[in-house]
């Protein structure tokens, strides 16, 4: 991942859980229990709240502890969390054991829905650094059923705005915007979401200004096989083994020349030797 360059995951709680499971894998070289469990990073309800800390505070604290336990010296998870203000931001910094002068960087930014929130996430990211490789964005679950038709318009408008606003910075760093497709599995919204995904995919193919990270096809295949993938039938949150599938798909795309996802993640060496760093990317 160090050779790939900095990567941002911007999205809602589903994206948070994917970020956390990916983070654990990169730091330790393995995932936690595939069906969740005590202290699972893919399920905040597994963390007991106290008088001072709610379940999500405990989740983030445990995530930081996991990086400290499994990451190499000099690694860390820096986060800001205020649930009442809908504020969740995190920066994972993993130092390579093979070359301690270099780090892999992974970020998370919570957003719910709407054009302003998407552009706000990109503004925040560009304020953190200019050498991004991938800005991965998802908005889906917080759009009510009668507003799902707004998803494609919001995403396309945000992508157009970002390319107009950060033309020079994107060109210098080789930054690519990525749409992580909707994974909401329920049948009553499937057709609407499929239509929104079609519009986004057509825009991406026509303009070349957006890549599509197709997590929806993975969950649709599982749903079609009647697999139990979510916490409960009405849920949009998944058991950890589904986040594993999405993360392995991502690693196979980012690190195509490494043999095996575990090698690509590299608890001992979190880089991707087969992928050259973008122009102007820094190891730190």
Describe what you observe in this structure.
The chain has 284 residues and is of the alpha/beta class. It has a single domain, classed as SGNH hydrolase (Rossmann fold), CATH 3.40.50.1110. The protein is built from 9 helices and 7 strands; from the N terminus they run βααβββαβααβαβααα. Strands 2-3-4-1-5-6-7 form a 7-stranded mixed beta sheet, sandwiched between helices. β2 and β3 form a beta hairpin. It is globular, with a radius of gyration of 18 Å.
Summarize the structure.
This protein has helices at 13-28, 55-70, 115-128, 151-165, 167-173, 190-207, 215-224, 240-254, 261-265, and strands at 7-11, 76-82, 87-95, 103-110, 134-137, 176-180, 211-213. With 284 residues, it is an alpha/beta fold.
Question: CATH H level: which superfamily?
Answer: SGNH hydrolase
Question: Kindly state the mean pLDDT as a whole number?
Answer: 89
**What is the succession of H and E elements?**
EHHEEEHEHHEHEHHH
Low-confidence stretches: 260-269, 274-284
State the helix count.
9
The geometry reads as: globular
Radius of gyration: 18 Å
CATH structural class = Alpha Beta
User: What fraction of residues sit in β-strands?
Assistant: 5-15%
> The CATH topology, please?
Rossmann fold
Could you say what the CATH architecture is?
A: 3-Layer(aba) Sandwich
Number of domains: 1
What proportion of the residues is helical, as a percent range? Answer: 40-55%
The total strand number stands at 7
Strand order of the largest sheet: 2-3-4-1-5-6-7
Q: How far apart lie the N and C ends?
A: 12 Å
Largest beta-sheet details: 7 strands, mixed
Give me the secondary-structure category. Answer: alpha/beta
């Amino acid at each position: 991942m160090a050779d790939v360059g900095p990567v941002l995951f911007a999205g809602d709680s589903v994206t948070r859980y994917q970020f956390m499971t990916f983070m654990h894998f990169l730091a330790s070289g393995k995932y936690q229990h595939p069906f969740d469990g005590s202290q699972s990073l893919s399920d905040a309800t597994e963390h007991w709240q106290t008088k001072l800390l709610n379940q999500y505070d405990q989740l983030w604290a445990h995530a930081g502890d996991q990086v400290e336990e499994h990451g190499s010296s000099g690694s860390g998870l820096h986060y800001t969390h205020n649930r009442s203000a809908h504020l969740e931001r995190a920066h994972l910094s993993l130092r390579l054991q093979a070359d301690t002068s270099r780090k892999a960087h992974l970020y998370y930014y919570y957003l719910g829905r709407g054009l302003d929130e998407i552009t706000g996430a990109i503004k925040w990211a560009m304020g953190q650094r200019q050498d991004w490789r991938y800005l991965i964005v998802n908005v889906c679950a917080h759009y009510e059923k009668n507003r799902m038709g707004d998803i494609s318009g919001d995403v396309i408008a945000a992508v157009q705005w970002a390319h107009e606003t950060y033309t020079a910075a994107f060109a210098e760093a080789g930054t690519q915007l990525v749409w992580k497709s909707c994974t909401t599995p329920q049948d009553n919204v499937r057709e609407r979401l499929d239509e929104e995904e079609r519009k986004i995919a057509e825009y991406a193919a026509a303009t070349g200004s957006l890549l599509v990270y197709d997590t929806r096809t993975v969950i649709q295949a599982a749903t079609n096989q009647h697999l139990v993938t979510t916490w409960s039938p009405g849920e949009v949150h998944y058991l950890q083994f589904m986040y594993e599938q999405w993360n392995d798909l991502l690693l196979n795309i980012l690190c195509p020349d490494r043999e095996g996802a575990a090698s690509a993640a590299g608890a001992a060496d979190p880089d991707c030797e087969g992928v050259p760093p973008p122009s102007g990317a820094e190891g730190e």
